Amino acid sequence: MLVEMVDEAKYSHIVDIELGDGSIRHGQILQVENDKVLVQVFEGTRGIDVDKSTIRFLARPLELAVSPDILGRVFSGLGEPKDNGPAIIPDKRLDINGKPINPYARDYPNEFIQTGISTIDGLNPLVRGQKLPIFSGAGLPHDQITAQLARQATVLGKGEEFAVVFAAMGITFESAQFFINDLEETGAIERAVMFLNLANDPAIERIATPRFALTAAEYLAFELDMHVLIILNDMTNYCEALREISAA
Questions:
Q1: How far apart are CA 202 and CA 218, in angstroms?
Q2: What is the CATH number of domain 2-61?
């Protein structure tokens, strides 16, 4: 959506679009040029009547409402509850863009995270503070391995608070339901926070999903003093969304 005669708009800020029937859609500023603003509408532009709609610039970036109650909840790729549970009453709202961390200032990674998968634990162990890519291909059970990691991973030691932040990008409804059911049936959902972006959700939401997940993880780690494992699936879909947005 191209909006003209706009003052003081900034890249990545969000907007509310009120349609003629009173419904609200949300969007994010992708480009600013003089008094013109290009807005990506999350819910799509179908049905928007330009003459009967109004747009409100909120002058803030995307934010995540956080509190200890986010544990055990399932959110959309934009951080909205989608498990039919109550809205989160936030202790605070955090900018998902965050702040960069100096990698040189971090502790040397030497604390083992046990995944329960012998080939990972024995041959290529996962250590706190490090990344572990898992490459897969068509027909391979990557969803099953991802779910196994989410429900089994833990840190060794007594009294250690541990949480899993799981973000899925561009997955099918069937895969999303598989992950939810698997964690609910095993009880692992109680220590997990899930962000699900489906294949039919907007590409701009897919780009924001890992940022929401990382913001939740930083809150759990830095403010609730928990050990956190972040699982991002599927990075190929994320990269395709980046390509789609960059070519727009």
A1: 25
A2: 2.30.30
